[in-house]
Sequence to fold (137 residues):
Amino acid sequence: MTPDDPPGEPGTPGLRPVSPLEQALHAARALVLADLVAREVAAADVVSLVEESVTHRRWWVEQWPDGAGFLAGLVAQDVQDALLERHGRWPLCPVCGTGDPHALDVEPELGPDPHWVCHKAGVKVAAVGRLGGSAPS
Fold:
């Protein structure tokens, strides 16, 4: 063991455990990226929007660590808002086949276990991060 090795982890100089806040940020990033990929909108400029949100939310969760469980929904909402300004509504509702196209909403707006919801049809479409493989409930 060298002086640079973290306690309990011989042979891994400079490697430090990832904090729970960083783990929550990485998880939120991964979930939102999964939804962007599922809806085929994960272009470089869109992925940059995710990174901007994660940077902003890092400060937010450092101020309020108890909010770590809310990060996935908040990052999803941040990206949704940024996409609306730059590209249009996202994600479009896959449930309603008639009428004007509309975006899904994140529910709860501030809470754990966020889902994409169609308020028009009154259904949960998918958990955040699961747009590619979920049936509406």
